[in-house]
Amino acid sequence: MSLQNLTKSDPFAEDGFDGMDDKVGSEENYLHIRIQQRNGRKSLTTLQGLGKEYDPKRLLKAFKKEFACNGTVVDDEQLGEVIQLQGDQRIKIKNFLIQNGMLASNIKVHGF
């Protein structure tokens, strides 16, 4: 009598799947708008995932003028250039980007 279910075998080895597929669930094509809670009622809105065709400093200048808030561009090793704005500006940023030609399907709004 042999117990076959106790042998060590990888069920995905036959298909050539090693568990690391870069294309499934990839978040590279999306523009992420997030909110981070600071202290008390203060919050920070971040925008990451901008393509190379967009200049983050020019976008920041337009955001600051349109939304009457302060902001900065932070350079991150993993995420690239991230735009930070004071306050909860998620919906305003999304509407601004859609009005200026960005596809709504490429924008993801996170938070609360």
How would you characterize this protein structure?
- With 112 residues, this protein is an alpha+beta fold.
- It contains 2 helices and 5 strands; from the N terminus they run ββαββαβ.
- The chain has helices at 56-67, 90-99, and strands spanning 31-37, 43-48, 71-76, 80-86, 107-109.
- It has a 5-stranded mixed beta sheet, covered by helices on one side.
- Measured by DSSP, the beta-strand proportion falls in 25-35%
- Could you tell me the number of beta strands? 5
Tell me roughly what share of residues is in helical segments.
10-25%
Q: Give, in order, the helices and strands.
A: EEHEEHE
Strand order of the largest sheet: 3-4-2-1-5
- How does the helix and strand content classify structurally? alpha+beta
Note the total helix count.
Answer: 2
Which stretches of 5+ consecutive residues score pLDDT under 50? 21-26
How would you sum up the major sheet?
5 strands, mixed
- The overall pLDDT, averaged over residues, is 83
Short description:
By secondary structure, this protein is an alpha+beta fold. The chain has helices at 56-67, 90-99; strands at 31-37, 43-48, 71-76, 80-86, 107-109.
What layout of secondary structure does this protein have?
Layout: E1 31-37, E2 43-48, H1 56-67, E3 71-76, E4 80-86, H2 90-99, E5 107-109
Parallel strand pairs: 1-5
Antiparallel strand pairs: 1-2, 2-4, 3-4
